[in-house]
Predict the structure.
Amino acid sequence: MTELHQDQQKVTDADLGYPAWRGFVSWAYADDRMREIFTVETGIAWPAAPSNGLDLLIDRATGAETGVAGAFVVWASEQWGEEFCPPLMREAIAKHIRSKDKG
């Protein structure tokens, strides 16, 4: 068996599922309806678009949209199915669930 063939056999279902998960999250992020459902289910609202350059700089400095986007990725991943997510996202989902259980 060639070395290349042996490496190909190391690919797991999780490796194959990553592009599908990423495609789903990208689609969900771009879909207005999914973003609405996220806001209704979580109570987390997307920040308003910055109206000027100063607001944009403040948003970037504070990570305003980054925090919401991260919460959205976790939420979308839960919709997709935790078992089909990459390992790091499964860890983020588990952390999110633990934090909900505490509060």
Q: What stands out?
A: The first helix runs from residue 3 to 9. The chain is about 75% helix and 0% strand.
